[in-house]
Amino acid sequence: MSLTKTRPKPVISRKLQPAALKRTGSLVPAIGVMLLVIGAAMALVLDRLWIDSAQVELRTAAEAAVLSAGHKLLDDQTLVKRTSKAENAFELILQMQARMAASEIGSQNLVAGNQLLLDPTPEGDIRFGKIVLNTVNNLPMFLETATHPNSILVTASRLRKHGNPVAVLFQELIGTTAADAVDIAEATIDDRPIGFKPLPQQNIPALPIAILGDDALAIVDQSWKTMIEDGAGLDLFSYDETKKCVVKKPDGIPEMVLDANFHPGDDDDKKIFNVVLLDFNSGCKTNAIDRQIRNGLTEIDLKQFDGQIDFQKKNRTVNGKTELPESLLKSFAAVIGQQRIVFLFDQLAPVSTDESEDQQVDLARPAAVRIMAVRVEGNGEIQLVVQPTVMTSRTTLMHNSPTWSNEGLKYKNRYVKKLYLSQ
């Protein structure tokens, strides 16, 4: 007789199942609350990022607007001689044009998806003045004035009280429908250039020529001082900013003819020239000069000056030729109308007329010109008709003292300036 052992059946307790189901169900509300909290936190983060992004866009738009207004103040018409009354009227018109330029640039920039609207009225968002020293706390401050301003202040805002706030993304969670954003940009014009230094991606926009600044011998009246600053030059040309070209039409700014063949009296052995073709590490070779005329001066071109021109240093002597050969005709013609830096020198004595000899000139100070016309003389040399202009360049080195100080006044310049963001 065989005995078969049977295994007992496992006993499953049904009492545990309701408890397990009860614990599982209790997590659902907790998870829901957790997701709600995380969602609200994410909404706060996204709204903060949205508002921060709007603030960055507001800053960018304000800076673009203030620089646009500053460039408008650097108008060639500021070089026209006027009576005091006419000058005051001109400044008000120029400032109005600068406000409109800033407002137009502002409207081309989006802040949180909408145009930035700047009030161009005199009591609006674009103000003109000067940076002065506050005698109370000895800190610089903006002083609003319409007389010869050199600083511009732009207040860019998106405010609820003005009806143009920044809309938030999650209004129900944040508890508000909009947020305020405001930023102030300030630009200053400095007119005390002490030199020039090329940048890695930007040459000095200079022509390799020096112009007779002042004729101390009073032999020839073809100097910068006589023709330009004293207004003795003819006024035949102007530059059309809209069409970007030179037109034969007077504009109130005198021109000067650069010529290497002005002779004092009947002495053909000596002469006073009013232009020198400078040898900036070029050997006065046509190809090198052509590149410098078209593209400006590089650090290698200024090797003898350690890569930069500094008017504070005594060694500013450059060799050159008292001729502008016809081989450079196309080079100069290619830059007609462009704003270019030039250098002024003071002639103290007549020099030899032998054009094969190098002449040495001391670069006294900078100026800025547009070439308005290029002519070829009967002897095959070039005459350049130039007109002064007002220009700014990032390659310009300015005096290191604050603009509100009395230092560096001897470097003040009507033609070469620097516009930069000061706030």
Describe the overall structure.
This protein is an alpha+beta fold and 423 residues long. The protein has two domains: 34-192, no CATH class; 199-393, no CATH class. Helices cover 25% and strands 29% of the residues. It is built from six helices and 25 strands. It has helices spanning 16-73, 84-107, 171-174, 224-229, 286-295, 329-333; strands at 110-111, 114-115, 126-134, 139-144, 151-158, 166-167, 178-179, 181-190, 193-196, 206-215, 238-240, 245-247, 256-258, 270-271, 275-278, 309-310, 317-321, 339-347, 351-352, 359-362, 365-376, 382-388, 391-392, 396-398, 416-421. The strands form seven sheets. Strands 13-22-21-18-10-15-17-20 form an eight-stranded mixed beta sheet. It has a six-stranded mixed beta sheet with strand order 4-3-5-8-25-23. A three-stranded antiparallel beta sheet has the order 16-9-24, with no helix packed on it. β11 and β12 (245-247) form a beta hairpin. α1 (16-73) runs antiparallel to α2. The longest helix has 58 residues, at 16-73. The protein is elongated. 35% of the residues are buried. The mean pLDDT is 85.
Keywords:
single chain; 423 residues; alpha+beta; 2 domains; eight-stranded mixed beta sheet; six-stranded mixed beta sheet; 25% helix; 29% strand
Helix content percent band: 25-40%
What is the CA-CA span between the terminal residues? 109 Å
- How many separate domains make up the residues? 2
Strand order of the largest sheet: 13-22-21-18-10-15-17-20
Radius of gyration: 34 Å
Structural class: alpha+beta
Number of contiguous helices: 6
Summarize the main sheet.
8 strands, mixed
